[in-house]
Every structure is written in structure tokens, then in C-alpha cells.
Amino acid sequence: MKHVDEYRDPAMTKELAAQIRRTSKTPVRFMELCGTHTMALARHGLHALLPPTVSMVSGPGCPVCVTATEEIDRAVKLSQTPGVVVATFGDLVRVPGSHGSLAGERAQGAAVEVVYSPLDAVALAAKRPGEQVVFLGIGFETTAPTVAAALLTAEKKGLTNFSVLSAHKLLPPALAALLAGPDLGLNGFLCPGHVTTVIGTACYEPVAHGHGLPCVVAGFEPADVLASILMLVNQVEQRRSEVEIQYKRAVHAQGNPAAMALMNQFFEPVDAPWRGLGPIPASGLALRAEYGHLDAVKRFDVAVPPAKDHPGCRCGDVLRGLITPPECKLFAGVCNPSAPVGPCMVSAEGTCAAWYRYRRED
Fold first, then answer.
1. What pTM, to 2 d.p., does this model score?
2. By CB count within 10 A, which of 22, 97, 200, 209 is most buried?
């Protein structure tokens, strides 16, 4: 098994790019399902190494980006509640809701704290017993088990001032919804390494065998990504459609049963809204009834009016792979990192942010 440093070797990257150019004969369009892959492709200039026959399109793989506006509105309303401290990851603070953002509320005096892990939020609750600390739970199956671990820790500590506002999303239902939507002309998927480390590869079998679309679970170094694209190209050229793992140093087909068990102990699937994809049945996670005392939805009034997106923002179309960021009229003008209109420009894994930072010359 190769060490991670080998996948950062420029010589290895160059050789893999050459192999792709030699192998690829059929024009193909692959979608990466992870925002980290989107950023890796852009940051390392990997698009420029691919032959004209291979094109990559970004999908709904950025957890901040797919968080629906109404979910941001709930968080903003929560931050306006006296005695409540909202704890969240940094990217989410700047995402605009219908009438403002958490950053805007913080500027007006709201208690909004940026944390680096859910356990940091638990520690914050222990330090501030006179306030209610609410952690905003976002992310896919990679993050949800860590939030479940935080809930378990809060239970063991007997904290009565800690709760979670869950906006977690599940990848398999979103992938099914994506395939049920408009034909995107895809020939395969670059599948997320981190999520698959938890859920395993079984969810990709219907994609490969039912839809005839090859799937390769990829790592995140430059050579990881190119090696995975080469595996997809080989499947297409050999008329195969299988689920393969390139990221074998971290991913096993069965995933991580312990992490899944912990997640399922605290959460259950519910219908959830997705930016760009709309409502998807059983695609979100809510706290189970027996943990209602840890559920911010049951502790506080988070009801909000119907959400309103910026009329010119096409973040949803970017997330579905229907357009590239420059096709949005707001891109790099009205919408930029200093004044983002949509979450795709805010998040460190957002497609618009990746294009703005690394691909504007394209």
C-alpha cells in the first residue's frame, strides 16, 4: 500500500495524467460528489492535465452549500433568542439566509461562537452553565457520528444546557434524487472518500449496476484524484460498470459499523430540504424521540416563514451540475468571497469559491 506522501509526488501525478491521455478515447463526463474533490481539482490545476475527452462536473458534495435557506433562517432566529449561544463551524456563519446571516447577527451582539468540533461546543456548555448552547449540526455521514459522540458526552456529563439543531444530510438519497432528475449526460462518479469511510460502498451498487455508471471512491491528494479518474476511464473504455475503491488506505467496503451504530443511536432519517435538489424523502437526520431533551427544535421556537433565495443566485443549478459558476451572472461580480450571495461562494468546499480562487482564467 502506498504512503500518502507518494500521492503528492509530482512525478506520479504527471505519469497518471499521461496514462489518462493515452487511455481515454471516448468522450466522458464524470461528476465528483465531494466538495473536497472539487477544491483539490481546482487547487492543483488537475483540469488542465486532463485530455479534451475527459470533463469533470461538480455535484452536491459541499455540506454547507446544500444546507437549505430555511435551515439558515432557523439558525438565525435561534441566535436572536435571549440566553442562547449558537455554536457552529466557521463557513456556516457567513452563509446568507432570507434576511441575514449568523455573521450579521453576531455583529449586532448575538452570541455566535465558531468551534472546530462538536465536542468544543460541549465544552462551551460546561463553561457557560447559565446559557443554553446550541450546536448547529450540518454535514453528511462523516460529521453526524461526531455530533452523536458529542451528544453522548453531554449526556454523560449531565449537561442540561446543551442541544443540537440538526440539518444533517444523507448522501445515498441525494444521489438517487440526482439520478432521477434531468439527464446530466454523466458517465461515472468520483465518490467521496470521507463519507464512504463511514457508510461503505453498498449504496453505489445500484448506481453502477442499475444505471450503468461506474463509481470509484477517491482519496484527496493530486495523484489520488487522477488515479481515480484513470480507473473511471478504464471502466468506460472496457465497457464495465463497477464500484471500485482507489482510497484503499482509508476505505473498506463495509464502512465503519461502529460509527454508523452511534449515529443511528441518536438520529433517525427524516424528509429534508436540499438547496438545488428541493425536498428529498428520508435524506436528513433528526434526533430520535428519546433524545428530545437534546433537540433544539423541541426546546426553542425555530419556526420561520417560507424561505426566500436571492433571485439571481444559481447556486442550486451549480450543485446539480447543470451549469458552471461562470454561467451565473452574479459570479465574480456581485457575488464574490468578500460579499457572497450564495453558499457556493462561502464554503471552503464550494464550487464557486473553487472557481473564483483557482479557475477564473478558464
1. 0.94
2. 97
**What's the rounded Cα separation, in Å, for the pair 267 and 284?**
9
* CA–CA dist 46, 48 (Å, integer): 5
| Residue 309 in this model has a pLDDT that exceeds 90 | no
- In the block, cell 463511514 appears at 198
CA distances from 111 to 83, 125, 165, 167, 197 (A): 8, 13, 16, 20, 35
Q: Which domains, and CATH codes, for the chain?
A: 1-357 (3.40.50.11740)
pLDDT at residue 362, as a whole number: 73
Q: Work out the burial of residue 99: count CB atoms within 10 Å of its CB; fewer than 13 is exposed, 13-18 middle, 19 or more buried.
A: middle
314 Cα distance to chain centroid:
17
Write down the mean pLDDT value for the chain: 95
Q: Is the pLDDT of residue 176 over 70?
A: yes
> What number of other Cβ atoms are within 10 A of residue 100's Cβ?
16
Question: pLDDT tens across 328-348, in order?
Answer: 999 999 999 999 999 999 998
Phi, psi (deg, nearest 5) at residue 5: -60, -30
DSSP, collapsed to helix, strand or coil, labels residue 63 as helix
